[in-house]
Structures are given as structure tokens and as C-alpha cells.
Specification:
This protein is of the alpha+beta class. The chain has three helices and ten strands.
């Protein structure tokens, strides 16, 4: 399968939590699939309505994660950690990357510039550059979760 991905990029999460909530320049929208919401609900023993709100016009994403009104972070971001990390939504598994597909079905990954854990060849010390295999696995995860015909474009996270 042919796809584009950022070259010479590494990633090492530094647990800054910027991906989990609003920043002074960006309002974050953590979108969830129905399967994400159901999995989180089963894990937390909370009703889906306790941590989400419905959203429309976002392709396969039908919910948006509610935020803590005091700090603008995801309800499950506490003490600078994700309390549902193993059950986190697909969109969180992709961050700091996003996937889109053009009309011809060609996939492309982009990387956000806001994430402090994104590393270039110049800043990568002792780590690895993310290559085709990494992005192929992400693409496989998306296709397995959403289906091959689903819309992937989502710049909401």
C-alpha cells in the first residue's frame, strides 16, 4: 500500500499533556468512535454520557470527550497522566500524527508542530527515526478500526 509519511521524524512522549487539553492558541477536540466510548465506559464503569457529548459531521467519530472546565484537559487526564491510557481513543493513539486520504484513496500522515516530543535528526539523541514500518502499523490500526473505506481526515486532536 502506497502512502506518504514524514521523513526524518522521531517521537518520544515527555508527558507534557499538551495533547490532552486546550492551549492558549488551540481548542482541543478529542473525538471518539462509538467503539472507543464503549470500551472506555466498560473500563471506567461510567455511562458514555458522563464523559462525552455527541458530535456531528465528523465522519466515523460520533462523540467528543468532555473536558475539565477548570483546566480544559480531558476528564481522564489527572496528575499529568492519562488514567485510561490502555483504553485511550484511536485519535490519542495517533497523536502527534494524523492520517488523511485523498479522493484517490492515497493516504498521507502529517505531524503536528505543537508537540514537544516530536524530534528531528538534529535533536534525536540515542533514539530511532520513525520509518515506514511505524507508519504502516498506524495505517493498519486505522483501517482495522475504521474500515478501509472510512474517512480519515481529522485534524481535531
Amino acid at each position: 500500500m502506497n502512502f506518504n509519511y514524514p521523513a526524518d521524524i522521531g517521537f518520544a512522549c515527555n508527558n507534557c499533556g499538551i495533547c490532552c487539553g486546550d492551549t492558549p492558541t488551540k481548542t482541543r477536540h478529542v473525538l471518539l468512535l462509538s467503539s472507543d466510548a464503549e470500551r472506555i465506559s466498560a473500563y471506567t464503569k461510567k455511562a458514555v454520557s458522563e464523559f462525552t457529548q455527541k458530535t456531528e459531521g465528523k465522519a466515523s467519530y460520533i462523540y467528543e470527550m468532555q473536558k475539565n472546565p477548570e483546566n480544559g484537559k480531558c476528564l481522564f487526564h489527572q496528575n499529568n497522566q492519562c488514567t485510561i491510557y490502555m483504553q485511550r481513543p484511536l485519535i490519542c493513539k495517533f497523536y502527534p500524527f494524523e492520517l488523511s486520504a485523498d479522493k484517490n484513496g492515497k493516504y498521507a500522515f502529517k505531524v503536528t508542530s505543537e508537540c514537544l516530543g516530536v524530534l528531528s535528526l538534529d535533536t534525536l539523541k540515542g533514539g530511532e527515526i520513525l520509518g515506514e514500518l511505524f507508519f504502516r502499523r498506524l495505517l493498519h490500526l486505522a483501517r482495522a478500526t475504521l474500515g478501509s473505506a472510512a474517512e480519515f481526515s481529522n485534524s481535531s486532536h
